[in-house]
Amino acid sequence: MDYRLMEKQLSLLMDEDCGFLPVLSNCAALLWESLEDINWAGFYLVRDGRLVLGPFQGKVACIHIEKGKGVCGTAWEKNETQLVPDVHQFPGHIACDSASNSEIVLPVRKEGEVMAVMDIDSPVFGRFTEEDAAGLESIAALLGNRTVW
Ligand code: SME
User: Fold this and answer.
1) How many other CB atoms sit within 10 Å of the CB of residue 30?
2) Are 145 and 138 within 8 A, CB to CB?
3) Ligand 1 — pocket residues by CB below 6 A?
4) 131 exposed, middle or buried (CB, 10 Å; 0-12, 13-18, 19+)?
5) Which of 27, 41, 61, 120 is 20 to 30 A from 94 in CA distance terms?
6) Please, are residues 54 and 24 in contact by the beta-carbon 8 Å criterion?
7) For the whole model, what pTM was predicted?
8) 17-146 CATH fold
9) Where are the domains of the chain?
């Protein structure tokens, strides 16, 4: 996967004047079209002390996630990427789509503060590698710093 190319594509889709909604929507679409073997790609936004569902592609998903709950709430609470090769082994994993077997969740930060999390699910066990984590972290950094939250 060429994450440098994805970064370039995303930066071309970022209009300085627009807020997070169109940017995250386009990013979800870009992830969905670019990554193989995934069944969900999108965002949860930090709002009023919990996570609320943001733009995504895939099946319908739960609307709220509390801090520290599930893979998403853990990524937010710890402020670190969660690379989960087998979601069935992750304590408290929240199953939105029963087809999901592995998952990666990354904090999207502005000046260190978590504004949202990026969540990608796969039906394939061990789908996401450290290389994916590094590439997606650069995408998350671009989003976090250049988006008007
Ligand atoms: N699996 C996530 C919930 C969100 S869905 O995957 C879209 C979690 O455990 O936080």
Assistant:
1) 17
2) no
3) 40, 61, 65, 70-72, 93-94, 96, 100, 103, 119, 121
4) exposed
5) 27
6) yes
7) 0.97
8) Beta-Lactamase (3.30.450)
9) 17-146
Q: How far apart are CA 126 and CA 146, in angstroms?
A: 31
Question: pLDDT at residue 44 above 80?
Answer: yes
| Residue of 40, 71, 93, 114 to test ligand 1 pocket, by largest number of atoms within 8 Å of CB | 71
What residue's CA is closest to ligand 1, atom 2?
A: 94
C-alpha angle 127/42/72, rounded to 5°? Answer: 75
Say how far apart CA 81 and CA 117 lie, in whole Å.
9
Residues 6 or more apart from 33 whose CB is under 8 A from it?
none
Nearest CA to ligand 1 atom 3: 94
Supply the residue whose CA is at minimum distance from atom 6 of ligand 1.
Answer: 96
Cα separation of 119 and 112, whole Å?
18
